[in-house]
Backbone:
């Protein structure tokens, strides 16, 4: 078989620890033998971030803006212990945070569903994607412990000097107080990202909030979504046979539990925090969960939802053969390759990504699994990561009639 040609590179962001080891293995076993892989490589491994004073992370973010598609390996977000372990110049911020704020994106998380791992919710047949707004609300909240009696007011001083005032509460005794905000431009980019993502995966979009109680605040979110739908996205959704609808959070959770899955669920920041963990736990495992950051300019960064799997890495350094699950990292690559193929009009590349995903699922269906999911499936003898990759490669080769 001739290797599949690419025209535009993918931004490749290497990472840390166990996932860095898997990264190499995935490229060697599953990508390089089949594709004439074109990437622009950025080493976001912690040592290299330190050597470059984290400039490499910003360079990678700019490269994604330019090339539109990136794939990212999990990276260490340093804490005090890591500063010592890696003898760092400073405690660098999370690369994901840096890249997210450069691209102004929304994160979409989707479980990888197989017949061998039954979701805890019996009716779920297809994955549910949670789209979480990642700016503002309580994450940018300002709060007080109210010490005793007094008047709490909401005061806004406008640019022209006029002052708006509203009583929040007249405290007769001690209590608590919090101010939160969001911005129209951030809500709009969140909504654009959700509409475009739903169209790109061909699924319905749900948005839920609580505008019956929070008439102005959540009401604004609802208005922005409704307005963009009516003025821009409605014809595209109708053409694709898809629907958008808004409902209240409590109604949405009830519907989600009765649904078959197969839709995108957009949520405000805190609601998304809760629901993405509920969805991932109920579908099985973080090692079977993909994550993609989508910007309003339609740049995409694909990654695994899990971290660098430090505990496995330390055991690997001691000589243990790892049985770490590479699925989410492989699916980060397939997501990026499929998107690259779509943007560049290279059908073979997109087709390769789909064949690779099918080969992964078929290995699992056949009972070839790493330890984490073998435990969930029950009664399956686990294999190590490399054997798992070889089982996938064999199925991929079969799909191209290479045997
Ligand atoms: P983690 O790497 O997600 O691992 C937590 C535990 O989950 C592992 O010890 C393992 O459980 C299980 N697990 C996760 N992924 C797995 C996989 N692919 N296969 C098998 N088991 C898997 O989270 P963490 O240990 O809290 O964080 C480690 C480092 O990752 C930290 O330095 C953190 O900063 C970083 N991190 C990065 C990202 C990112 O780049 N997106 C996200 C989160 C965390 P068992 O040990 O029980 O087998
Ligand atoms: Mg959380």
Residues:
């Amino acid at each position: 078989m001739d290797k599949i040609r690419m025209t535009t590179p993918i931004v490749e962001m290497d990472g840390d620890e166990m996932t860095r080891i898997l990264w190499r293995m995935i490229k060697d076993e599953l990508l390089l033998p089949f594709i004439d892989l074109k990437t622009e490589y950025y080493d976001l491994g912690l040592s290299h971030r330190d050597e470059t004073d984290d400039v490499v992370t910003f360079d990678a973010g700019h490269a994604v803006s330019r090339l539109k598609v990136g794939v990212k390996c999990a990276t260490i977000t340093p804490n005090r212990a890591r500063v010592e372990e890696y003898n760092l110049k400073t405690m660098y911020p999370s690369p994901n945070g840096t890249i997210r704020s450069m691209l102004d994106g929304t994160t979409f998380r989707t479980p990888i569903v197989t017949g061998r791992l039954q979701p805890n919710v019996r009716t779920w047949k297809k994955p549910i994607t949670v789209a979480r707004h990642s700016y503002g609300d309580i994450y940018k909240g300002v709060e007080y412990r109210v010490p005793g009696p007094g008047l709490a007011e909401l005061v806004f001083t406008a640019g022209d000097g006029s002052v708006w005032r509203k009583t929040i509460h007249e405290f007769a005794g001690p209590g608590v107080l919090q101010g939160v905000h969001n911005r129209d431009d951030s809500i709009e980019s969140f909504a654009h990202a959700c509409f475009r993502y739903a169209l790109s995966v061909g699924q319905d979009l749900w948005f839920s909030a609580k505008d019956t109680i929070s008439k102005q605040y959540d009401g604004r979110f609802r208005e922005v979504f409704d307005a963009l739908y009516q003025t821009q996205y409605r014809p595209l959704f109708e053409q694709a046979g898809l629907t958008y609808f808004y409902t209240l959070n409590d109604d949405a959770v009830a519907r989600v539990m009765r649904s078959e899955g197969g839709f995108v669920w957009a949520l405000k920041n805190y609601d998304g925090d809760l629901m993405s963990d509920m969805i991932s736990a109920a579908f099985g495992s973080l090692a079977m969960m993909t994550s993609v950051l989508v910007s309003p300019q339609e740049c995409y960064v694909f990654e695994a939802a899990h971290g660098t799997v430090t505990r496995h890495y330390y055991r690997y350094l001691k000589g243990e053969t790892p049985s770490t699950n590479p699925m989410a990292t492989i699916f980060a690559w397939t997501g990026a390759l499929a998107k690259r193929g779509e943007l560049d009009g290279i059908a073979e590349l997109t087709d390769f990504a789909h064949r690779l995903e099918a080969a992964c699922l078929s290995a699992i269906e056949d009972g070839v699994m790493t330890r984490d999911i073998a435990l969930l499936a029950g009664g399956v003898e686990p294999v190590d990561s490399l054997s798992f990759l070889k089982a996938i490669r064999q199925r991929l080769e079969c799909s191209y009639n290479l045997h």
User: Anything to note?
Assistant: The chain is about 45% helix and 20% strand. The mean pLDDT is 95. The two ends are 11 Å apart (CA to CA). The first strand starts at residue 10 and ends at 14.
